[in-house]
Amino acid sequence: MTEFRLDEFLPYQLAELASRTSRGFADLYRKKFGISVAEWRVVAHLSQSEEVSVREVHERAQMGKWQVSRAAARLEAAGYVRKRPDPEDGRLVRLALTGKGRAMVGEIIPIALSYERELLARAGGGDEIRKQLRKLLEALE
Amino acid sequence: MTEFRLDEFLPYQLAELASRTSRGFADLYRKKFGISVAEWRVVAHLSQSEEVSVREVHERAQMGKWQVSRAAARLEAAGYVRKRPDPEDGRLVRLALTGKGRAMVGEIIPIALSYERELLARAGGGDEIRKQLRKLLEALE
DNA sequence: AGGATATCGTTGCAATCGCAACGATGTCAA
DNA sequence: TTGACATCGTTGCGATTGCAACGATATCCT
């Protein structure tokens, strides 16, 4: 049989890295704000754009649209996000951060950046890692 | 507000890479052999070692032991894996591939390697990517 | 105009997941 | 020996996930 080492296999390594970094970071904000990874992604995306539809987040943040929908519902219930129907297209729902939501994102973003910085520092350097990851991502388009 | 781009954020990029590569590869064997990612990991690990306990797979393959247990149960039902109690320690269950299981792994491994090769080739080179991923993994220990 | 078709967001449901608790077995110490 | 404790693998159960179908709205074509 061809010899094969699972822990040298690229998809396995990536899954490992993803689950560890994602969990490590999520632990930093879940306790403080009670939001999930999906909800974090939505508010992070909303912090870039003033007002966006569910569909846009679904496409740009690579989430299922039902994930966005459910995340938005929870975020609205928690007072972080406001939902209103698009005045021009009744099918669309426009999402935007509330003041409370903006405050939360304003707290999380520095945590995110410092988490990332520390990770890259511990891996030595960082620019080279970013470059290689980008190449991989492009290869998967 | 501090500006922040989700698609430049390391944990997000890694999650993206992991889900795409994992899904892309899984599509290649799920249709043919009807096994899940967890089951693939178990058989891949079994292909390296003659006979191992559930606990060993759980530790080395970074899976919850209940995942290993359930995956092993399904694999046994499908005839890919044999389970028997350890003769020296009645608590342990020793897992091993059957002939059918070895045949399956023998088919999947070349697929895995060629999938990985193509991915790295499309990302240009590959050695540098592997090195950077290893550094990241070490940084997360 | 109006019916067929497409798109958007939501929801019902089944499968999967992780945690915690369990029974079974083994170990250790008194 | 025997009782307390540890470890192994499994399972029950609640939470999360993804898919597919749905109602509502918009667009297109005749």
Give the gist of this structure.
The structure is a homodimer of 141-residue chains. By secondary structure, chain A is mainly alpha-helical.
Properties at a glance:
three-stranded antiparallel sheet, 6 helices, 141 residues, homodimer, mainly alpha
Summarize the topology:
The structure is a homodimer of 141-residue chains.
Chain A: H1 10-33, H2 37-46, E1 52-53, H3 54-60, H4 65-77, E2 81-85, E3 93-97, H5 99-122, H6 127-139
Chain A binds a DNA duplex (30 and 30 nucleotides) through helix 3 and helix 4.
3D architecture notes:
2 copies of one chain form a homodimer. With 141 residues, chain A is mainly α. Chain A has 6 helices and 3 strands. Chain A has helices spanning 10-33, 37-46, 54-60, 65-77, 99-122, 127-139, and strands spanning 52-53, 81-85, 93-97. A 3-stranded antiparallel sheet of chain A has the order 1-3-2. In chain A, strand 2 (81-85) and strand 3 form a beta hairpin. In chain A, helix 1 crosses helix 5 and helix 3 (54-60) packs across helix 4. The mean pLDDT of chain A is 92. At the A-B interface, helix 1, helix 2, helix 5 and helix 6 of A face helix 1, helix 2, helix 5 and helix 6 of B. Chain A binds a DNA duplex (30 and 30 nucleotides) through helix 3 and helix 4.
